[in-house]
Amino acid sequence: MEPPAQPKRVTIVDVARHAQVSTTAVSKVLRNAYGTSPQMRARVRQAIDDLGYRPFAAARGMRGQTYTVGVMLPDIRNPFFPEILDGITDALWETDYQVLMAPGRNGEAAEAKVTEAMIDRGMDGMILVAPVSSRSHLERVAGMVPTVVVGRHGRSAAYDTVSDDDLAGAALVVDHLADLGHRRIAHIEHDETDPRRIEEMPNAIRADGYRRAMRARGLEDEISIVSTTYTQRGGYLGAQQLLTRSPRPTAIFAGADIVAMGVLQAVSEAGLEVPDDISIAGYDNTTFAALGPISLTSVDQAGRHIGTNAAQLLIDRIGDRVRPTAQIKFSPTLVTRRTTAPPPG
Amino acid sequence: MEPPAQPKRVTIVDVARHAQVSTTAVSKVLRNAYGTSPQMRARVRQAIDDLGYRPFAAARGMRGQTYTVGVMLPDIRNPFFPEILDGITDALWETDYQVLMAPGRNGEAAEAKVTEAMIDRGMDGMILVAPVSSRSHLERVAGMVPTVVVGRHGRSAAYDTVSDDDLAGAALVVDHLADLGHRRIAHIEHDETDPRRIEEMPNAIRADGYRRAMRARGLEDEISIVSTTYTQRGGYLGAQQLLTRSPRPTAIFAGADIVAMGVLQAVSEAGLEVPDDISIAGYDNTTFAALGPISLTSVDQAGRHIGTNAAQLLIDRIGDRVRPTAQIKFSPTLVTRRTTAPPPG
DNA sequence: AATCCTATGGGTAACGTTTCCCAAAACGTG
DNA sequence: CACGTTTTGGGAAACGTTACCCATAGGATT
């Protein structure tokens, strides 16, 4: 079987000829620019339909606009991120902007590759979700392209931010567990050692919120943290470590639902019952947390809402690149389900 | 806080001036083209490093190449698709190609929007995962841009395909359940009514495979199908329907793991025990299926492998657009876990 | 009736890169 | 040493779109 040859693209010149107007006129109609009579608009629109014309983004890109916004997601497997993405695409659906995503994958180098690639491709704007890159890199990027950073705390003069109050979220979990009577509450965090990032990354702030809340409840001696990653495997390995500690924790606060999934697996393999032997709480309130057999207590941080706000900020920023940057922060809520209960004994 | 002004891009002209050569020479070095001496290459490379030059994709796009491939995924929430994506990015990591994704979302119109957008952006190639668009649309797209279609069966002269033998996969499940002694085995499918698609879509073929396998085991009178969607919610609603049927099925074969998640929830809410009261099997063997508390019997269809093969086919096709199209088909295997057991009684 | 607007439309030069050519120099062969 | 061949390098024209200008024609204002 042989593929057929490809047809040639219809250009603005073809449209202009067909409508008997100049290319300038067609361009103006396309962009709803000033200087077009209703009659001309109608004729040009007709010609566009007749010929099936579509603007070629590369050519537009050379003139400065591609009508494309790039979204960088850290980990497509984490079921929380689709929520944010839904919010973004919802907000951008009615606009002329097309959303394209790239996976950030592992670490700073891969992130840089993605941000560079997006800049090279002339993105009109970028939304970076929970980036791990250095602040200076982010500001350099934001200097080239309008950028909104999602998830990271801290304000910058170069980019807008949307985040959730992770400090409060962690406290919600600790307070809930402590109210149930737990004292040995352990936490599994996504490892973060870089001191410059430690104040900004949501994972680090959740860990800090855990420590503060434990102290506030007089449980400073019970603070117990394992550092792994926000992945299912990270949760699995982290829980295995925690379960061998003596005395064993009576509750585990996983920094993300996806981590809690791994914890559940390790706990079940260890022959322990949830929540009779051990309580487990997650973070993000993903759709999996609501699943019957899992029914995970989790912190809800309206991801969709975060996404729509990020998209709106980006559009505003594209419209006015020098307006002061904004910082939007949402407050999380706790959703209690069946994986948390009073400690045994 | 006010954002700073943005710097101007370094172009090939700047590099040429700095290296004291022509822009043609720089272009040749960039593309490893013929007609460059080692000395010139060295000088140009040095200049590129000095100036931090990066090629501008839009300008390249105007000449026909953007070094970008587009991937369309139907549903980012389905944990099977990240596997395919990993395979694709693995295969493309060492190449000059950058991967950009777009969510296909709901239905044909949204898919067309995505494929058009990718064509407009001058993608060098596209990988469409389980597209629902009409065959003629796919062939039109493939006529404009090298395209690989993943998941759909059926051969086309316009595009290459990579798929898994869904017919065999469905049979694996039915045979497994029948061997355990089940007779009332129900199936939840992703609804497909379009006759042109019914022969190509993996979901439809799984349903067909279910019917055939039931007949082959002499269970044609027990065939029972609910049509919903391949989503968690679809599984939930589908299972609710099945559980009210009388007599109730003793086993449910969900067309995808994500569907099985919803089934588990409905079953648990109905107060039934898995697998004592009812057996459940999924499809895709996602990481969630392996989770301790879930431990779902599922059909494994090496998603990563599918992805790398699709990417390789795409690269080959970009290299030679007239070579005959290829069709790669993989064979699935069954992974039995704790959600399937002999029927009660 | 002369002047000044405003609305409408078009001509044309960019934007950054590649590709098709052609020119000059270096090399190999008899 | 004269000739053909290969290697090395550059000039310049695209590619499709937008933005900055300018030209014209009516209409309104004096």
TrEMBL record, chains A, B:
User: CDD domains from the xrefs?
Assistant: HTH_LacI, PBP1_LacI_sugar_binding-like
What sequence ranges are listed for the domain HTH lacI-type?
A: 10-64
Entry-linked PROSITE patterns: HTH_LACI_2
InterPro entries, sorted = HTH_LacI (IPR000843), LacI/GalR-like_sensor (IPR046335), Lambda_DNA-bd_dom_sf (IPR010982), Peripla_BP_I (IPR028082)
Q: Does the keyword DNA-binding apply?
A: yes
User: This protein's superkingdom?
Assistant: Bacteria
Provide the transmembrane region boundaries.
none
The GO molecular function terms of this record are: DNA-binding transcription factor activity; transcription cis-regulatory region binding
Q: Where is the signal peptide?
A: none
Q: Which UniProt keywords apply?
A: DNA-binding, Transcription, Transcription regulation
Query: What Pfam families does the entry give?
Result: LacI, Peripla_BP_3
Q: What is this protein called?
A: Transcriptional regulator, LacI family
- Source organism (scientific name): Actinacidiphila glaucinigra
